Amino acid sequence: RLMRKLGRSKSESAESQTHRQPGLVGLLEILRAQLEITESMDIRTRQGLLNAMVGKVGKRMDNLLIPLELLCCISRAEFSDMKAYLRWQKRQLNMLEEGLINHPVVGFGELGRKVNELRNLFRKIEESESLSPSAAEVQRTECLRSLREVATSFSERPARGDLTGEVCHWADGYHLNAALYEKMLGSVFDTLDEGKLTEEVEEILELLKSTWRILGITEIIHDTCYAWVLFRQFVFTGEQGLLKVVIEHLRKIPLKEQRGPQERLHLKSLRSSVDADDSCQDFTFFQSFLSPVQKWVDKKLNDYHLHFSEGSSMMVDIVTVAMLTRRILGEENDKAMESPDRDQIDRYITSSVKSAFMKIAHSVEIKADTSHEHVLASLAEETKKLLKIEANIFSPVLSRWHPQAAVLSASLLHKLYGNKLGPFLEHAEHLTEDVVSVFPAADSLEQYIMSVMASVVGDDGLDSLCRQKLVPYEIESKSGMVVLRWVNGQLERVETWVKRAAEQETWDPISPQQRHGGSIVEVYRIIEETADQFFAFKVPMRIGELNSFCRGIDKAFQIYTQLVTQPIVDKEDLVPPVPVLTRYKKELGIKAFVKKEIQEVRPVDERKSSEIVQLTMSKLCVRLNSLYYAISQLGKLEDSISERWAKRQSDKINIRRSMNGKSKSVVSNQKNQFDGSRKEINAAIDRVCEFTGKKMCMHSAVVLGS
């Protein structure tokens, strides 16, 4: 079973090619081929190995000559069918080509011209099988003889810098050993379910441990290779259980200062290179195995909103792998970072949040044609949803490495949306439909962002954090100016309507039960409708806009009161003029006998007399009842305005305090807003009562006198 596992080669993905050296193919194929060798063939194989050792007493065997000896010793007759023989022969040739040409540990030097000759010999050996048996045998024998001459010189190339004359073979190098061990580690997976470890995993690992001395494997190399094999299998299968084993072995890799000096030198000497785009990139041992891991996890975490949208359990393990590989590779590159984990989490959050925001912005713009809502209003709602997902799903995971992960994502979304909102705020001058749609949505988003940040740093730390990380939208200030402009225009209309209602009043009672005039009912209807419009706007408002609105209403009541009492003349006008006395006219000059100077007689004002005649008692009573109705209903209007304002503003106290840096209360008492109207109406009631009483007295005197 183990040998069959080792036979995997060209079916691997592109990611696994980073560590699989080409020369491994031939050797693995040879090992796999041994399963097909018959007993007779086994004898010939032993004979081939003995031939390879001729003249090598006391020296290492030239491993690359083993495939050549096998080709020479084993013939077509040893195989049951032609196809099996051709597959076996191809494996031996692949081994020679990979080891001698494609991936030697040393360069070709002056022997480079023989590369083409070697490839031609490989081709002729394969083509010989298409000839007649006699011709095929002749061509094959000649090619193998020539191949032996060339292969021997190639296999004995000395390593660079080797002054001892000892031969350094490619098959004895680090690349083969590490790649071979990597292949053997692949046997730990269940053949029926490759996302699971086999039940015999412990026995297999113990067996593989016996190869460490032969292959030059240390515990660090084992943990690194095993972590890579497990991680690659996780990528193929998506089985999260494998990822947890990866984390376990990555954590076993000791820090650089915890390794012995000999092991540090050994790991430093293990290097590999990759040719790409006419350049050669050099890798250390850890880089060759862990760089692809880091590249994969970084790609996922740079857009974690996309790859982990269904849950965060997998994300926890992925971030753990990312931080562990970053630690190991950071030490390998001698990078001294004070807070590498936090810095990397910063980059993940920035990249993923920006990507997610751009996607929802693009989606909102596409739907803008079919939606009746403004783009910025829709974008604010979608941004709030995005932040809710970030705060509830991803931030709890990322906060393990970055305590203020939620603050970073919230402040970034605040900035991204603010960039879109800025041009709209600059051109918002009137309370249009777009303003009414965008302002509340943007303000609601800003408040939610603030609440998310406050949940991390608390209310005490929110003020300083806002000054450091946020540039407030100042929607409340901008909205206040727009609302104030609307209030002023609307109050001018209210005054016009109030004047019209009072001027058109006939001062007849509405009904026997309702003895006040219809004008005061109309005035309250107009004012209440205006108040309903004012509070129906969901745009942010400050206390100043409310005070301005209340002052306008107060002024409207005063205007109405003045119009009600306008026909009321002075009470002196009710007294008839003093008759002209000519009899004592001459005595006026004798001042010695006159105790008091006689007043001059006032001329009768015909217009006032006409108004007095029109001010009948019933009409005076209706005016008086209208004023009383006005002041009695004023308290209800005050309570209604105060309650609606308190309900509107109570949830925003803490947010506004943090955004503005002030601790003023936004819920104020509106009970004194209409004191001017009360004073005016009470004075008018007194005046009408006094005028009515005087008129009744004068009327009674006239009746009695007549």
From TrEMBL:
<feature type="domain" description="MHD1">
    <location>
        <begin position="436"/>
        <end position="578"/>
    </location>
</feature>
<protein>
    <recommendedName>
        <fullName>MHD1 domain-containing protein</fullName>
    </recommendedName>
</protein>
<dbReference type="InterPro" id="IPR008528">
    <property type="entry name" value="unc-13_homologue"/>
</dbReference>
<dbReference type="InterPro" id="IPR014770">
    <property type="entry name" value="Munc13_1"/>
</dbReference>
<dbReference type="Pfam" id="PF25761">
    <property type="entry name" value="TPR_PATROL1"/>
</dbReference>
<dbReference type="InterPro" id="IPR057984">
    <property type="entry name" value="PATROL1_C"/>
</dbReference>
<feature type="region of interest" description="Disordered">
    <location>
        <begin position="1"/>
        <end position="20"/>
    </location>
</feature>
